[in-house]
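Narrative summary of target 7.
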Amino acid sequence: MLVPVAGLADRIEGRLNGLACASKGEMCPTDKDDPHVLLERDFVIQTEDGKIFYITNMDWKTKLRYVLRMVRVVGEFSDRSSAITADEFWVKHEDGYRLEWSLERMREKQRRAQQLQQQREPGLEQWQLR
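Modeled conformation, tokenized:
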């Protein structure tokens, strides 16, 4: 399901599935700890009607954590490649959807890691500029 959100972003909802399984029109084994799931190259959103959508800017490990769960991704959709660049990644829980990943959180985490690295190695930035 592709739905514009307040005219600013697109939203896709479906189940997070392994790419190989989704390509065959199947759902991955129901146990996310199944070794087969660990062999998946990527994970995609599979909608109720069987369409698949790639999430282009999320890492494999984050997607693996939520495989087989109902998810909602808000971001910029590319119709040409059936892909969405995620701004927000929501996962359905018993009490509704919860924000589990966002582009802003990821950027903030990277900024903090970079600052920590610079504190540990003062003067490193002068070498990086050369």
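The helical segments are 19-23, 35-38, 60-65, 103-120, 124-128.
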